[in-house]
Amino acid sequence: MSSATNQTLKRWASRGVALVLFATLLTSLWMVADALENSKRFESLYSTLLLINAVAFLALLTLIALNLSDLINAVKKRRAGARLTVSLMILLVILSTMPVLVLYYFSIEFLHQRLDAWLDVKVEQALTDALELSRAALDARLREALQDTKMVAEDLASLTDDVMGVHLSHSLNRNGAAELTLMTPSGKVLVFSTADDQEGRLLLLPNRPNDSVLLQLKQADTYVNLEPLGKQGLNIRVVVKFKTTQGNQVRLLQALFPMTERLSQLTNHVQTALVNYKQRLYLQKHFKLNFTLVLSLVLLITLASVVWMAFFAAQRFVAPLSNLADGTRAVAGGNYTKQLPITHFDELGFLVQSFNDMTRKIAQASDEVKHSQQLADSQRAYLEAVLERLSSGVISLDYEQRLRTVNPAANQILGLPLSHKLGHFFLQLQHEHPALCALCQAIHPYLSDNVHDWREEITLFGTGGRKILICRGTQLSFSSPDQPTGGYVIVFDDVTTLIQAQREAAWSEVARRLAHEIKNPLTPIQLSAERLQQKLLRKLTPPEAEMLERMTNTIIQQVETMKEMVNAFSEYAKTPKMHWQKLDLNEVIEEVIELYNHLPVPIHLALDDDIPLIEADCGRLRQVLHNLIKNAMEVPATDNFITVKTQVVQEDNSIELCVQDRGPGVPLELLDKIFEPYVTTKPKGTGLGLAIVKKIIDEHGGIVWIENRQGGCVIIRLPVIF
Amino acid sequence: MVFIMLAYLKHSHEPKFWCLKKPNFLTAGLLLLLFPFPALAEFSITSAEVRLQDNLYLMDANLDYTLTGAAIEALNNGVTLPLVLTISIERERRYWWDETIATQTQRYQLKFYALTEQYLVEDLKTERQETFPTLSAALTALGKLRNLPLIETTWIKPEGTYWVYLQIYLDIESLPVPLRPTAHLSSKWRLSSEWYLCPLQPIKP
Known about the structure:
The complex is a heterodimer of chains A (722) and B (205). Chain A is α+β, with helices and mostly antiparallel strands and 722 residues long. Chain A contains 16 helices and 17 strands. In chain B, α1 packs across α2 (25-34).
């Protein structure tokens, strides 16, 4: 069950209990008032009713105390509407208590002062006088009865006990007594005679005088008094003491004379009136106490009820406002689905309705925002997925040129974990990773000049060897308050293999064409020249023959040279299968240098003994060394000497090989294209030596360049095996 | 508080409060709420004895009804005083509460008869009225209990141990309504004797 339902149930239970209590109180108060009116209905319940009232009042007080403690807690916790409830309650209680208190004061005042004055009438004396009058009226009858009894006693005194019974009956009939009894002084009944009672029944037992009468008769001779005898009504009891003449025995004669009905009634009325009056007079203060008690109970119960109803009314009035306050807090806390129950159809109800409309609209707007967010997220996820699976490296920079995103392909191409460097300034990363130098240097001008679109081919040398990248950059044009000038997207593709393949294919085509177009005609030319020499040599004059021989020899020699040239070129264009093996570069160098020791140009070795192994084709590496050393030996210098140096380059994890001569170096205009075929500084060079070197180094994933440092210096870097 | 309640219950008009037959808890509660100090017993039972006569147990007892000034004043002002004598016969049980064999209540009314200035005692059971010239004569007559039939011998098992419990008290709940709250609250009105025990000897076979 939800907490709201529980709360409603609790509230209704509390109201139910209070209503039942209130009804019980009202009923029992009415019963108390009824009992006080001398009514027999609830007389026996009076004390219990008072107790019930007191208990119910205490229960009501407990309820109020509980409610009050709740309210105080609510005020302490600054719950919505609590203070308003308190103010309203105080107002209601004051408004309703004042008139009740005034009424109470005047009621008590009236009861204690005014009522006494009003009832203070001299009635008691009148009633006492009336009673006295009754006694006087009865006295005559008493005397008469005594006289009659005495006469009977005198008659009896002369008789014996045996005949007394008969005489007693006669006397009974004669003097109008209801009962005549003859007794001993101790009260023992000797004879008795009785008349039928008022209902015609014969009395079987004599109505004996009690011990105190007998005691009185020990000192006196007669006893006469009026006595109420239950159903027999008011009777005159006369007892006369006498002595029998025979035997001188003391006897008691008791006679009971019933009063006439009228007289009995009248005296009874007077007696009852007086007793009732005296009783009322006596009970007056108790009555007042009771009335005060009941009035006070009524006052307390009314006050308690008023307080409780004030609670109820204040809470009922404040509830929609508290709900609104709670609702506002909930909305402020982000709960936009909050809807409040409309319990009132008035201005408050309208307010609640407006609140509900407002939250509904906010909830709709919030849903739309969430939907857009989800859409953006899914698009972002889509883009990320695309970027992750893209073979091109993508890097984006923010407007401050900090790294924003790096896709996995970029990491792979650059051979660096750039994903961990997000937020770093991109251009500063080159200090940490020298492999990025070329890239940074290439793109720096575009970034600083804010070039919108650019494209650049960049050669990198890093852990993965030499790489040629086609790099494209775009300035992002969007702008938002937090990213004022957008940023850059740099996309790059590794085209190393592609370019190499293209180059190889192009050179192969050139070689094929050379072979086909040039080499093929060379043989007939050579043969024709030889044949011309053979046929014409003998027929010509010696000077002519000498000239012919000289010319044909030149043709044959030049054709031979051309053949060699074409062969050399086809050798360059060929891409034989690589025989990869692990080897120590120093050993290969030493082996090759050994062959040149006998030559006049000295070769100085500066090899780093700690260089790691590399993976390479040994034969092709030898060819590289031969080509470089031959080149170095052929430089035009008088005191030429060659230095061959190896060392480890930590930054890009490679081995560097330098071959330096003391020649004039390479002219600056040729520096860029010295490695291209048929570019040479030597008069007799084929222009293929360095081209082959570059080709082989490319095949090994290395990089080669030439610098002028006190001569030409060819530098090669080869990647180390991991 | 609990002690007071127990004391009240002990002096209340039931034989033993732990019997819980008709404990006057409501009245006790009211007293606890409004008047938390013990009552003074003005009544007492001087002697009581049970004797056997013709298969019937009879009781003779001397009861002392001493009225307080407040009660006498009320009596002389026409208020009828209801007096009650409660007798309970119980059989002792070793491992359980005693068994109540019989209970009887004798109710008397004492009133002042203004016409002849006498005191009138009425036995409500027999409706028999007696008049006395003085209050003390009336109270003496009330206190002299003779030959009160208790129980027939057939109800009494020879091997059992029996006790007769007696108590006399002024029945506040039968007083006039306006007087009741005062009577409940005032010790002058809470007239009651202690419980009096007298043995009842079964006939040995």
